[in-house]
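ugh ok fine here u go
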Amino acid sequence: MNNNLDSFTILDEAHQLGVKISNIDYVSRYIQIEKMVSEHIRIQTLLTQLKEITDEKAYNKVYDELHSIPIFSEYIELQTQVENYLKDLINILVKAVSPNILLKEKQHGGCGNCTGCSN
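structure:
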């Protein structure tokens, strides 16, 4: 192995790894479903409603309806699986660089519940 790799070469290899990861069965399915969810009018309507509801009972009703849609339930399940895989990958990379680096655990539940990323 060449110990004189420059940072651009490593970034290129990381990109290639990302492409390989996107071809894992469940990651590929997640990418497909993510697009379907973003184009699903009822799901998008319910998500918008969730953001606007302040009453807990009404929120739970919309939340339950949203999760009763099979494609959305599959999306959430796959999202969790992909996120866990990527967390494991990041931990492996960090520990290879330095075992003394501590990573903060992010909250679960999708975007909007934590400050862990820039999405």
